[in-house]
Write a structure and sequence with these properties.
With 407 residues, this protein is of the alpha/beta class. It contains 14 helices and 17 strands. It is globular, with a radius of gyration of 22 Å. 51% of the residues are buried. It binds 4'-deoxy-4'-aminopyridoxal-5'-phosphate (PMP).
């Protein structure tokens, strides 16, 4: 398809068609979590109503159907981010678990005291804290690349920190707090030249632009289903197959073993080695449906739609006196993080909610990025496939009310 038919997209999302405080809902909190289209909800209902069963171990018909659908979803996810093979997709609870898996399994096995992990200042807490846990256990050093005044992170600023002791470079592709797009490809090439592996937090990229993990040079790539119009409780870790093969299990239990005796157990091959216990069967199948949905829209169309909306929203918000947008990197995704002279972020959030507008106020799990700009919180409007100019206008008008009340 050429271009996004937003009216058609909106028709797929029942939840959008409601009033909040008597006003039409304008859902602009997509970076926190997105809404779910009918095909995702229907796919999940179909599992429960027609063929629900545990996977991978049943000889009976329902189990085979569930297993087929489950593994088909893995194929879809692999294709969506251009993994070389579906065995490179490990299902996790979300990006947080995916990043913890890499830090625990790869980090503990391959990092020694004095080795270095390179991060950026704009990381989400879930791409900071797992590395701090590794630091405290193994004595690795964390090096943090700075954020420029416009919210950008340049490749050079990260590359300057990469040296012979660098084992891991862990960076977001897109900042959830500022919208900044980080030049992952260039950084990855430099990291590989020093023998480091590259871990990418792709939470805010996968739902909004085409992603090709091989072209990016990502060795690991983490993302969450619930931000890409899929269910909660499911996400994925892409890992290069040779690396997954070398890594120890993350958790032990059923599903991940080849054999168990009290003396010794052996593991299945990746990805099953990293999927201990009964997985989130229905959520995995729902994630597969979300991938189908996005693939059908076309990620280039999605990106173009959101870029156009971002430009419009930036212009509308810039016209509001006393409002400051934080994060104006030249390469930016559909996230508008701002403060207002007149009012605290939480007050802004409460007032625009009265106008039917759902946005987020807070530190967005990126306290260091907030601190970089001398603030503790921002108001954040984050865009998705179903958002419209009218909703941006609704937000801007509501911010006008904030000014009246506090101004
Ligand atoms: N990284 C980024 C950039 C995010 O935006 C988020 C979610 N806000 C996460 C990681 C964590 O994702 P989850 O809570 O779904 O595990």
């Amino acid at each position: 398809a050429v271009g996004l038919d937003v009216a058609r997209v909106r028709a797929d999302f029942p939840v959008l068609h409601q009033r909040v405080h008597g006003k039409p809902l304008a859902y602009l909190d997509n970076a926190a979590s997105s809404q779910k289209p009918k095909p995702v909800v229907d796919a999940m209902t179909a599992v429960y109503e027609q063929y629900y069963s545990n996977v991978h171990r049943g000889v009976h018909q329902l189990s085979q159907r569930s297993t087929d659908a489950f593994e088909a979803a893995r194929n879809k996810v692999a294709g969506f981010i251009n993994a070389a093979r579906s065995e490179e997709i490990v299902f996790t609870r979300g990006a947080t678990e995916a990043l913890n898996l890499v830090a625990s399994s790869y980090g503990r096995r391959f990092c020694q005291e004095g080795d270095e992990v390179v991060l950026t200042h704009l990381e989400h807490h879930s791409n900071i804290v797992p590395w701090q846990l590794l630091r405290d256990e193994k004595g690795v050093q964390l090096k943090v690349a700075p954020i420029g005044d416009d919210g950008s992170v340049t490749a050079q600023d990260v590359i300057d920190l990469i040296g012979p002791r660098t084992k891991i470079v862990a960076i977001s592709q897109v900042s959830n707090a500022l919208g900044t797009v980080v030049p992952v490809q260039e950084i990855a090439a430099a990291a590989h030249a020093q023998g480091a592996v590259v871990v990418v937090d792709g939470c805010q990229a996968v739902p909004h632009q085409p992603v090709d993990v091989q072209a990016l040079g990502a060795d690991f790539y983490a993302f969450s289903g619930h931000k890409m119009y899929g269910p909660t409780g499911i996400g994925a870790l892409y890992g290069r197959y040779d690396l997954l093969t070398e890594m120890p299990p993350y958790q032990g239990g059923g599903e991940m073993i080849a054999s168990v005796t009290f003396e010794q157990s052996t593991w299945k091959k990746p990805p099953h080695k990293f999927e201990a216990g009964t997985p989130a069967i229905v959520e995995v199948i729902g994630l597969g449906a979300a991938v189908d949905y996005l693939a059908e829209l076309g990620m280039a169309n999605v990106a173009a739609h959101e870029a156009e909306l971002l430009a419009y929203a930036t212009q509308r918000l810039d016209a509001i006196e006393g409002l400051r947008i934080h994060g104006r990197a030249p390469e930016k995704a559909g996230i508008l993080s701002f403060t207002m002279d007149q009012a605290h972020a939480h007050d802004v959030g409460t007032i625009v909610d009265r106008a039917g507008v759902a946005i987020r106020a807070g530190h967005h799990c990126a306290q260091p990025a907030m601190e970089r700009f001398g603030i503790s919180s921002t108001v954040r409007a984050s865009l998705g496939i179903y958002n419209t100019h009218e909703e941006i206008d609704q937000l801007a008008d509501a911010l006008g009310v904030v000014k009246e009340i506090f101004g």
